[in-house]
Structures are given as structure tokens and as C-alpha cells.
Amino acid sequence: MVYRIFWLLLITTTLLMFPVHAQDRLKNLEFKQFSTPDGLPNSMVHQVYQDRDGYIWIPTFYGLFRYDGYEVRTYKSNLYTPGLLTNNNVLCVEEDYSHRLWIGTHEGLCVLDKQTGQMRKMQLEGINKHRLNEIHVTKENKVYLGYIRGMAYYDAGQDTLVLMTHKNCKGEVPEQKNVQTILEDENGDLLIGTWQDGLYRYHIKENKFTHYPPLSENNSVLSLFQDSRGVLWVGTSGYGLYKVNFSSDKQTLSIEKNYRYDPLNISSIPSDYIYSIHEDLQTHSLWLGSRDGIGIMNMANEGTFINYKESNPEHYLPVREVNTVFRDKNGLMWIGTKGTGVFHADTHARSFDVLYPRGNGKFFTDLISTLYIEENGASWIGFGYGVDYQSRDKKISLIPSKRPYHISYSPTSQEVLLAIHDGGVMACQNGKIIHQYKTSNCGFIPHDLVYWVHEDHKGNWWLGTYKGVGVRYKDGREYCFSRMPGIDALLSKEITCIMEDNDGSLWLATNNNGIVHVTGNMEQPETLHCQNYCMENKLLPVNTPLCFLLDKSGRIWVGTEGSGLCLYNVQDDCFESVHQAYNLPGDMVGSMEEDNHGNLWLGTNQGLARLTITGEEKGRVRTFTVADGLADNFFNQNASFYRNGTFYFGCSRGIVTFDSEMMKEKHSDISLRITDILIDGKSLEQIPEQQKSKISSFTADYTKTLIIPSAYTNFTIRFASLTYNQPQLNKYAYRLQGFDTDWHYVNAANRNAYYSQLPAGEYVFELRATNENGDWGEMRTMEILIEPPFWATWWAYLIYALLTASFLGLIWWEIRRRLMLRNRKYLQKGETDKVHHIKLQFFSHFYFR
Questions:
Q1: Which residue numbers delimit the Two component regulator three Y domain (predicted)?
Q2: Looking at 346, 380, 408, which one is the last position of a domain?
Q3: Global model pTM greater than 0.70
């Protein structure tokens, strides 16, 4: 471990690296803006709040907005929803433990039942101005309200608002006082900050108020915050930030520190007007929202502030008034501003360093094409043009006008081998070119455009070039296969990469001709046999292999352009794409390395992925992106290296380096929500209540059973996993049990499940999602009942059965009637014939007598 650290420091020093260190991340924060051009309807923000489901709520001067990382839902009174709110100037929101969102506006209180979507207006009697500045829900689920003219609470038993006065409370009650902020301390007491009347404490159990002496001349408290150490911070109007202490009985208050704005000190607080205070637990820092930007104070260096604001070129942020500072469940720090919308920053410690061999990172544009690190720590870095050699005591630029494709090491000759565009092979030692092999001076290079040099386990050099394979045997024999009669034509293709497997056979990557597997006696070229794996013979999904990896288990992996990661199937003798099955990012794998635990690290076109193969070939993927500290999300072909526990991956903005053993992974909780349900293209919330009640009595997110009447032909379910740093990286999977045979995998741009013309019956909708790093969360389900049309219902079939039975009964009755009639006629005819016969006998006897 000591050697590893020393070696890494050596590389860091010699490469003139400029990584982003965790200790400096407060000085190098990257803020992402969400404002009107990004979909936020209004940029005059009062507050940023996250509810217990994970949604971000943004109260503004012109309405309330709910944000899910992708889309915004608006709550305001307008021609579509007239009279929805008491006033569109929404000042604050807070959720209780009964899924109700309490909304404070310039004209009073509204309560949104998140389960049913019903909005209720509540009026407080006894005051003449109803501006509601602050809402606080205690741990006991009791709601307290801070108005411009006093304080109130919600009486759940009576379902009404109660104004707190000297008639129903003890002590010095803040009657008719302008309440600005309410904080619950660790004892369960409420601290109340007021305009021009200072600080109050409300002892809930005793129903008693205590009024503290003035903190400042105007005694106006705008914000209160108790940090993780239990320290109370008070933000004021015009008198800066106070750090205060209370006596053990909480009856007296003392000022420990007062931090004021000093125009001559860039490390003072940004302004004497502190609107909001919050703590970042990742950096143990205090964040202040002020009249002039934000100030950040590291708790370990109390009194020194890093100020991000419009007038600070070193820490520029295009904001003036910051009304709110907030930390969400996953550690993102949010700020809400007056005029420029919402910003958020990720302060998590980075697990990656970025090395800039040429440049300082800000203007670096030269891509890394290949790299190699020697055992002694010396580095060989290939760029778009040129190779740099750097060691402890020297830095040398080699072949500045040529592009290197591959850098490798020959244990036999103890030389570093450079495969160069139109430069053949250069053998180097100690940063110097010892010998250059070209078509003009040797017999094993088919073309001077050399992509790859591989030394096999016997010390033979195998070259991949523009015109096929060349070999230089250890005994001195040299061959160019394109010039040998009777040799398989596959060995004359353009070869871009070569790998040797455990059997000593070679695997060749070609340019648009698939993969070539070379077997036979490698010492005898005439005995070699070639097997082609390509799209045409269906043995490879695409014809563009980029890189190989032989893992510790003997499996052969290939990274491709178009089908991502592929795995060799020994039994079927073919390559199969496993990219989608493992839910890997993008569709390209350009570089691969394996760590000491058998994890695969893949450089893709959408980030760096770690693939952990568990039992029965099941894989777990963790994706890292620029959100985790990477310089870029696109990694170059075969520009990676692993040495002594440290990985190097080249991209267009430098080299990403990290120690997989020392990585601190950032875990984002997944709050998978159903954001909307559309029935025949119409949102569930927009369907008239009489019809909606037949579909669901709840909002989309709280619907457990969805009933689709027969009058509707299709429905769409929209969803989001409510992560906000890089939500476009989230992946989703859904299926409808009873209809789908497999999961549908979609990205963030297609987070909709659409079904049409489903047969009547019962189904179960199943939904899963990842966070921004590829971790899959728990499955969410919803029952869906497709009602049959009236002519296909059970009672319709009963009527059909009754009608059928009646019809059959009628037929039976008619047949029976006719049979009886026929029988009656037959009997009647028999009687008639009998009478006739008797008459005939009588007259015959009389006549002949």
C-alpha cells in the first residue's frame, strides 16, 4: 500500500496534474441552474422544499410548482383552475405526516391533499391580514403557522385554525407580531423569529412563550437554524449572522459570535441580510442565503466564508437575492433566488482525479489516444498527435506530428513499443527512441500504419496494421501474411487490436470485418487456421469490435461500437451482446480493465461502468459520470491502463484516474413515483370528477388500483425516480403482467408506458428504476382492471343466457304444441275413420239383408 501511494504521488507530480481535491471542493462548486429557459414557469423563488415522496416544491411570486427532475406541474389560480389558491404569491410550503401539503400564500392558507388531489382553503379568524410567512410541522405532526399578524396552530380535533393569544397561551405571546421563521429545537420547543420583535421560544408542553432580549438595534430575525452540533444560528435583517447560546433552563440567551459584512474582507459574510441558513453534511459547512449571493463557512474554519455571488469573479454566481438554501435527501444543496430561478450543487467527495498532461483542464482539448505506465512510475501518454514521456526528472515530447495508436511493453527486449500512424513501430527506453521498424528496414511490417503490437507468451511480436498481420518471431524470423501465398485472406484485413487467450491462440479485431480467431501452431504460419465472427455469419452482433479483455475466469469479452459489451459463448462458438441484459450505459465500449476482485471497468460513450458478475452470471452495474467527478462521459478506444491498483482511462479532456479499493461511492436513494396517468391522452387530474371517480379516487402517485372503463381505448403511465443531479442518466424498466412477456427497458427520455386496446381483464403493472449510478431500486406495482364493454359484462352474458334459454324454451314449447296438435289430429282422424267404418258396416248389413 505504501508503495502504491508513493507511486501514485510520483505520477501525479510528474504529470503536472491538477485534480479536484475533496478539501477544495467548496471553492470549486459547479452550480446547475433551473430557471425559465429550462422549464420553470417563474424565476421569482421564495422557497425550495422537498416532500416525503421526494418531489421538489418551488413556491414563487406567481404560483406553486412541483418538479420531478424532468417536468414541472403548476398549481395556481388561472383560467384553467380558477380559484385554486387564495393567492398566487406562494410564500412557503410544508408537508405533514398525513400526506397533506400546507401552502402559505399572501392571502392565507391552502391545504393540498396529495392522495386525492383536493385543494382546501382555510381562513384564520381574528386577524386583518392573512399573509402567511412560515409553516412548521412538528415531530408530533402538529402544524404551526406564522402570519404577518401573529401565530396560529391547526386543531385537528376541531378541524380549524386557532389564533394563539394571551387568552389561550401563557407568557409573552407574540400577538400581532410579524412572524418570519419557526424552528423546532432538539427539546421539541419552537423558536420563533419575528420582524422588529426579536426571538421567542414556545414551550409546547407548557403552552408558554418566552421572549428574549433584543439581538440588534432593529431586532428583526429573518432565519433560524440549528446545526448538527446543536449550535443555534440566527440570521438578521441588517445585522448579519449571530451564533447564540441558551442557559440550561432556556430562559436566557447569550451571544457568542456576530459575523458582519466587511467590504474590505472578501472572506466575511456576503451580506448583513441573511434570509436562509442550512448545513451541508458532506462538507460540514454552513450555507447562508443573503441579499447578495450565498456564503459558505467551513465549520472547521469558523468565521471564514466563501462567497458565491455576481460581484465575485473568483466565485461567480449570477445571483443577488437568495431567499432560500436547502439540502435534499441525497445531499444536493439547493438555492432559490429572486429573479434567476433555482440552482443546485453536488458537494459529495469525488472518487476520481483528473490528470491534465497538457493544459490546465479548462482549455484542454487534446484527446488521449493511448497510455502506458512503467513499473518505475514513468508514463507514456499518447495524444491526438504525439507522445509524451514523463518521469521524476524529465519530460520529453516524442514524434509530435504522428498519432500513436497503441503503447505496450516487451519483456523480452525490455523496450516500450509505440505503434504509430505511418511511423511503423518505435522501440524506446528511458524516453528515447532506440530503433524504428518500418516497411523499408524490416520484413514483419505489412504497412507503416501500425495499430497494435502484442508480444505473446513466447516472446514473439504480433503486429496489426492497415494491411493485415505481421509477426517477428523470437528466433529472428519475420513474416508479412499479406505477402504469403496460401495464407487465409482474413490475415490481410485491417487489424486494429490483438489479444492472446489462455490457449495461446490469437483474437484479432478488424476494421468493419468482425473478429478473427487464429489457431494452430503459432510458430508455423502455414498451419494457422482462421475463424471469422461477423454479422454476416451471425456469430457477432456487429462488425466493429474495438477492444478485448481476457478476465481472470478465462472469459473473453469484446467491446464494440453499436452493440456495446459482448461475451464469447464457448458452447455455441459465438459472441453475444450482454450490454442490454446488464443495463450498461450507451451502446459502445471502447476500453476495458479488470480489478483485483474480478470487477470489469468499462469506458463507454456514456460514462465509466463497473460490472460485478455475481452467481449464475447475474451482473450488477454501477455507472459513474461527470456528476461523480469524471472529466467526460466519453472514453476513447483502448486508452486505458491498470497498474498497482490504480486505473487510468483516457478521454478528450485528460486522464481519469482512481484507486478502486479507496473509492467512496455516492448512493442516491430512489424514490420511484408515478407522476401522471393519461387516459386517452388526457391527464387523470383533468378528467371531470364524476368520470375520474370511476377510474381512481386518488391522484396518479397514490393510485393502487386503476380501473379503465370500456369507453377508453388507451392509457399512459408516466414515472420518475426523483433524483436531481443527473436525472437524464436514470434508467427504467416496466412490464404489464398478463400482457407483456418481458421487461421494457427505457431511458429517461422515454419514461412512459403506453398500452392500447387491451383485452378486458385484470393486470399488474410492475415498475423499476435506477438512480444516476445505475443502482436498481425496489419494484413498484399497480393493479389495472380493464372493464369490458357493456355487451361483454357478466350481467350481459346472463341476459344473453336468459334470452337464449327463453328462445330455446319457446322453440321447445312450440315443438311440443305442434306434436300435441298432430297427435290430436291423428286421434281425431282415427275416431272419424272408426265411426265411418261402423256406419259403413251398418248400412252394408242393412242393405244386403
A1: 724-784
A2: 346
A3: yes
